Amino acid sequence: MYKCKYFKIHELVPPAVLKEKGEAAWELLDERLLETLDQLREHYGPITVNNYHWGGQRKWSGLRTKESPDYKLYSQHTFGRAADCLFKHTTAEEVRKDILAKCSDSDFKWINAIEMEVSWLHVDVRNCERIKKVLPAKR
Ligand SMILES: [Zn+2]
Fold first, then answer.
1. What percent of the chain has pLDDT over 90?
2. Is the pLDDT of residue 103 over 80?
3. Domains along the chain?
4. Mean pLDDT score across all residues of the chain
5. pLDDT band at 139, cuts 50/70/90?
6. How many other C-beta atoms are found inside a 10 Å radius of the C-beta of residue 93?
7. Which phi and psi (to 5°) does residue 64 adopt?
8. Is residue 124 within 8 Å of 85, Cβ to Cβ?
9. How far is the CA of 106 from the centre of ligand 1 (A)?
10. Given a cut of 70, is residue 105 above it in pLDDT?
């Protein structure tokens, strides 16, 4: 079982899931995503996923359930395979460029898809030819 070194479970699941599952919520998240988040943190510095624990607005940036306004049945967030990241010391665009430039080597080997043209970094570990560039889903 993989638990993140740099993230607490409340940063990756919404409040209702945290309340119901507590630490068992780690089991709802793909370990490849969790490993990737730690790798991103080590490469690019502090990352915000969910921040509701500290009074912030973000609660749907990791696992999403049907209560989310952005819920989609087949979203990678629904399966615990995606996270939307904001970086303290760099921008999502810089990180995106860097990851795409490195995609042939072993860095970030579980990142299989990246969302383009958004101000956050969406990474996911879906089953596909890597690295797939996806456009944001329309609401
Ligand atoms: Zn996303």
1. 92
2. no
3. 9-134 (3.30.1380)
4. 95
5. low
6. 13
7. -120, 140
8. no
9. 23
10. no
Centre of ligand 1 to C-alpha 60, Å, is 9
CA neighbor of 133 nearest in space, from 96, 87, 83: 96
Give the helix, strand, coil percentages of the chain, each rounded to 5.
Answer: 30, 15, 55
Angle 124-110-2 (CA atoms, 0-180°, nearest 5)?
A: 95
CA of 44 to the centre of ligand 1 (A): 18
Using the mean position of ligand 1's atoms as its centre, give its distance from the Cα of residue 118 in Å.
Answer: 9
CA of 79 to the centre of ligand 1 (A): 12
State phi, psi for 114 to the nearest 5 degrees. Answer: -135, 140
Distance 105 CA to ligand 1 centre (A): 24
Q: Which residue matches tokens 């049945």?
A: 73
Please tell me the distance between residue 61's alpha carbon and the centre of ligand 1 in angstroms.
7
- Alpha carbons 37 and 114: distance in angstroms, whole number: 13
Residue 6 has pLDDT above 80, yes or no: yes
CA distance 92 to 15: 25
